[in-house]
Amino acid sequence: NYRCRSAFKLLEIDDKHQILRPGLSVIDCGAAPGAWSQVAVQRVNATGADSNAPVGFVLGVDLLRIPPLEGAVLLSNADITDPSTLRKIEKLLPTDKADLILSDMAPNATGIRDLDHEKLIHLCLSLLDLSQSILRLGGTLLCKFWDGRESHLLQKRLMENFRVVRSIKPHASRKDSSEMYYLAKLYREEEKPQKG
Ligand code: SAM
């Protein structure tokens, strides 16, 4: 049983794009109440339920309180844009850097569509800045945004930092919402030098 229907969006995206697998180290930003973290714990084998597969790691971070979840390390009451949160994340990560950053973060919506759109784009941009410290070379970022006139700015910044960037509209998202996701792969991985 998942804590929230949002789980189905991540399941759908992962079924199609295979971003979660046993052994990966994942940071889930905007994790409360914890449905995405539940999916991540299962799929990276964070509890070691599958004794034949590598054991992964999940760190959930949110402004709000995230109720305890077996297999996940949780950082509640933490603002991802606050530098002290970065230091806490670095301390909690068992590996030097994470393989995958998930973000289903959303600011409190005012209902003014353009304003909400801009706020979320800026939140995604600060997450991209943070990636420099916590995402490994070749790593993956999945982030939610509300589509609008500044989406291309975020897309451009992602394309400067990742080799592959695609936008995704999950079927599990409400049809009338502007909610979408960017999936960015191969963080700052250099092109293979050409021979000859
Ligand atoms: N993926 C979650 C799940 O499946 O349970 C649902 C996430 S909910 C749509 C968005 C979350 O983003 C909220 O819990 C909110 O508190 C969090 N959030 C918004 N701004 C944040 C920030 N600056 N730092 C950390 N979390 C933030």
TrEMBL record:
What is one GO biological process annotated to this record? mitochondrial large ribosomal subunit assembly
Q: Where is the Ribosomal RNA methyltransferase FtsJ domain?
A: 2-185
Keyword terms of this UniProt record: Methyltransferase, Mitochondrion, rRNA processing, S-adenosyl-L-methionine, Transferase, Transit peptide
Q: Where is the active site?
A: 144 (proton acceptor)
Kindly list the places in or outside the cell where this protein is found, as annotated in its UniProt entry: Mitochondrion
Q: Which domain of life is it from?
A: Eukaryota
- Coiled coil where? none
Q: Which reaction does it catalyse?
A: uridine(1369) in 16S rRNA + S-adenosyl-L-methionine = 2'-O-methyluridine(1369) in 16S rRNA + S-adenosyl-L-homocysteine + H(+)
Instruction: Identify one Gene Ontology CC term for this UniProt entry.
Output: nucleolus
Which GO MF term does the entry hold, naming one?
rRNA (uridine-2'-O-)-methyltransferase activity
- Function, in words: S-adenosyl-L-methionine-dependent 2'-O-ribose methyltransferase that catalyzes the formation of 2'-O-methyluridine at position 1369 (Um1369) in the 16S mitochondrial large subunit ribosomal RNA (mtLSU rRNA), a universally conserved modification in the peptidyl transferase domain of the mtLSU rRNA. This activity may require prior 2'-O-methylguanosine modification at position 1370 (Gm1370) by MRM3. Essential for late-stage assembly of mtLSU required for efficient translation of mitochondrial DNA encoded proteins; methyltransferase activity is not required for this function.
UniProt record similarity statement = Belongs to the class I-like SAM-binding methyltransferase superfamily. RNA methyltransferase RlmE family.
**Which protein, by its recorded name, is this?**
rRNA methyltransferase 2, mitochondrial
**Species assigned in the record:** Sphenodon punctatus (Tuatara)
